């Protein structure tokens, strides 16, 4: 029952434009457990995933600590809103090969943490074509899918793979969670959703190390099966997030602080360059320590 309820909720969050198969859902102890499970399934110690920058810093813990998997940065520029274009992926892939690092996949977060943006359809197609050409895996973290202020604008990787000719579905995997979209971080409900039968089978066996309690599953199955509640919740959550985002960005603008245009997530990317003494990493760290230690933000 919980798998069916989760699949339906994932469909609703994405505007019912895709249909997830409950039999491909593997539950885990939050998105952290889901990422570690996938990393263990897809790569050996010392092998790497390409990750567009900036990325969620705890990925270094989630994917690396116990698996030995490495993360290889894909340098993205603010000039094009940090989109992970095909050229940037190719450059990172070549650098990894020169460093004798075997690349096993690409990891993207869509919507992005920490940017609060989401990738457009063409960029996602480029990424899917890239992993197909290289015969490497794509892990797409969509735990913020329900935080998009206009749900019709967000494009899931599950939509895109249906539009890419000869896409090898065995290479495509999603991570999802209820921590952000439902505000349930303490319940530790994560999801591995893979189009690869072997990955689903192995992940299900590995899930024994991070099970979701029976009581939690029962409660969530009942809650998520209430279609009226789910519809109202998703709609109201988006309205409130949009209002708070607008209020905060306007407040910052009034004191001269700009931000990257964004329509998703629980955060956004501020432009604080004018507060730096010089445009260096060391100056950024000095300013960061001031925010933490003196301003105590």
From TrEMBL:
List, for all copies, the residue spans of the domain called Aminotransferase class I/classII large.
Answer: 4-295
In the UniProt record, does the keyword Ribosomal protein occur?
no
Q: Which Gene3D superfamilies match?
A: Aspartate Aminotransferase, domain 1, Type I PLP-dependent aspartate aminotransferase-like (Major domain)
Q: Give the source's domain of life in one word.
A: Eukaryota
Q: What keywords were assigned to this record?
A: Pyridoxal phosphate
Q: What GO MF annotations does this protein's record show? A: 1-aminocyclopropane-1-carboxylate synthase activity; pyridoxal phosphate binding
* Protein family: Belongs to the class-I pyridoxal-phosphate-dependent aminotransferase family.
Protein name, entry field: ACC synthase
């Amino acid at each position: 029952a919980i798998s069916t309820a989760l699949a339906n909720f994932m469909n609703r969050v994405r505007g019912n434009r895709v249909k997830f198969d409950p039999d491909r859902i593997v539950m885990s102890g939050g998105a952290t457990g889901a990422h570690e499970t996938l990393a263990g399934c897809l790569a050996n110690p010392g092998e790497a995933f390409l990750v567009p920058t900036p990325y969620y810093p705890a990925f270094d813990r989630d994917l690396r600590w116990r698996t030995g998997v490495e993360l290889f940065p894909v340098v993205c520029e603010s000039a094009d809103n940090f989109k992970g274009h095909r050229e940037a992926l190719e450059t990172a892939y070549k650098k990894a090969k020169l460093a004798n690092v075997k690349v096993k996949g690409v990891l993207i977060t869509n919507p992005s943490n920490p940017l609060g943006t989401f990738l457009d359809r063409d960029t996602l197609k480029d990424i899917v074509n890239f992993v197909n050409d290289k015969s490497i895996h794509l892990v797409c973290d969509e735990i913020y899918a329900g935080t998009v202020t206009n749900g019709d604008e967000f494009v899931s990787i599950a939509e895109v793979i249906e539009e890419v000719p000869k896409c090898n579905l065995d290479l495509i995997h999603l991570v999802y969670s209820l921590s952000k979209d439902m505000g349930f971080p303490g319940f530790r409900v994560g999801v591995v959703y893979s189009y690869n039968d072997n990955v689903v089978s192995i992940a299900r066996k590995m899930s024994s190390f991070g099970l979701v309690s029976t009581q939690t599953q029962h409660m969530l199955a009942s809650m998520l099966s209430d279609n009226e509640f789910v519809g109202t919740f998703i709609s109201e959550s988006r309205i409130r997030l949009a209002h708070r985002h607008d209020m905060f960005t306007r407040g910052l603008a009034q004191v001269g602080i700009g931000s990257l245009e964004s329509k998703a997530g629980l955060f956004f990317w501020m432009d604080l360059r004018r507060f730096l003494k010089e445009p260096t990493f060391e100056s950024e760290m000095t300013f960061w320590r001031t925010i933490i230690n003196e301003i105590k933000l």
